[in-house]
Amino acid sequence: MAAYVVRHTEARDWRALRSLRLAALRDPVAPLAFYEQYRDALRLPREEWQRRATPRADALTLVVENLREEGATLLGMVVLLARAEGPERHVQLVGVYARPEYRGTGLARKLLREAVDRAAGREVRLFVHERNVRAARCYAAMGFEPTGRSEEVPEGPSPLGHEPEQALEMALAPRSPGTSWAPTRTTTGIFLPDGG
Fold first, then answer.
1. Residue 80 in this model has a pLDDT that exceeds 70
2. DSSP strand E in the chain: where?
3. Based on the number of CB atoms within 10 Å of its own CB, is 137 exposed (0-12), middle (13-18) or buried (19 or more)?
4. I need a labelling partner for 49 at 20 to 30 A (CA). Which of 10, 15, 73, 127 fits?
5. How far is CA 190 from CA 2, 34, 45, 88, 181, in A?
6. CA nearest to 171, candidates 85, 102, 99, 97
7. Residue with the larger pLDDT of the pair 3 and 86
8. 93-144: per-residue pLDDT in tens?
9. CA nearest to 30, candidates 45, 43, 14, 41
10. Which residues contact 119 (CB under 8 A, 6 or more apart)?
11. What is the dihedral of CA 55, 56, 58, 64, to 10 degrees?
């Protein structure tokens, strides 16, 4: 049976992170899940991937790694962005992804729970495409609720006669502080798939 660990990336993880992100952008659901285009990500230089993998005060990438496979096999990811709107501080989740063969195993929920813990007591927000029903159900099952706010999906001009598609904001109220936002050298825990 496989065992996984949720951890933050470091600069040295850039190749594995690039591979995972490119897989995400080739996924059939990518148009409903990501604003970045595969062709644009493919052209990014090594330095940009290293920057994305390096923990910063305003950004942290969490990944799920299979401990039973050789090398850095990343199975899922989420990026946490520290945001402030006036006096209001929150954490924005972007780039949520689990490889198709691990969907429905509980892996995405474990990853999201860790992201919420890392929010350290701040409200957690995300946007979900109005047609991404599977993702919206997953977020709702974890307690995320619609805020009533939305934004246009930046896919270029809408076809003639069609309204622009929307990404709907969902939020999870602040919880008592858990794990610190600051990355640590230790892993955050090993878990086995729970089938949920």
1. yes
2. 4-8, 59-66, 74-85, 88-98, 123-129, 145-152, 166-172, 190-191
3. exposed
4. 127
5. 10, 28, 32, 33, 19
6. 85
7. 3
8. 999 999 999 888 889 899 999 999 999 889 999 999 999 998 999 999 999 9
9. 41
10. 80, 90, 91, 174, 175, 178, 181
11. 0
Distance separating alpha carbons of residues 119 and 174, to the nearest angstrom: 8
**pLDDT number for residue 75:** 94
Cα–Cα dist 89/166, whole Å: 24
According to DSSP, the β-strands at 59-66 and 4-8 are antiparallel
Select from 100, 109, 126, 80 the least CA-distant residue to 30: 100
**The pLDDT of residue 45:** 97
Give the Cα separation of 13 and 18 in Å (integer).
Answer: 9
Q: Are 34 and 25 in contact (CB under 8 A)?
A: yes
Angle at which helix 133-141 crosses helix 107-118, to 10 degrees, equals: 60
Its pTM surpasses 0.70 = yes
191 by DSSP, 3-state: which? strand
Task: Annotate 2-41 with DSSP letters as a single string.
Answer: --EEEEE--GGGHHHHHHHHHHHHHSTTHHHH-SS-HHHH
Position 56 scores a pLDDT of 92
The token pair that represents 117 in the structure block:
């813990």
Identify residue 155 by its one-letter amino acid code: E
